[in-house]
Amino acid sequence: MSNDSSVDFSTISLSLHRTISLRSDGAGYLEYNEELTKVSLPGVRPGERLDSPGRALALQLPQGLQSSASGMVVQCQYTLEVELKVGQGFNARTDSPLFHIDERPTNQGYQHKQQHR
What we know:
By secondary structure, the chain is mainly beta. It is 0% helix and 46% strand. It has a domain of 75 residues.
């Protein structure tokens, strides 16, 4: 990423948001929104690049982050918000959807225990 404008972005803020939606027949709809983590980083001057050595945008993810889900009953969606602060004036902001898959096994699967009579 490079700042090809003539504007000095003083701060870059990254924040991770989660939205959980629960639906059921007859019972309605519930939605929970929360900001999971946020970090403010040094900005970018005109002509400066973020991919130069020693510059990286990093956001520490919380432990135990659930996988994204897009079912009929349960939806779990993540959004990365990136905000570029410009002094006392206008700030530029964008929201990007993220898809997270937790690769750790959460259980050993169903095991049927046979009962002896």
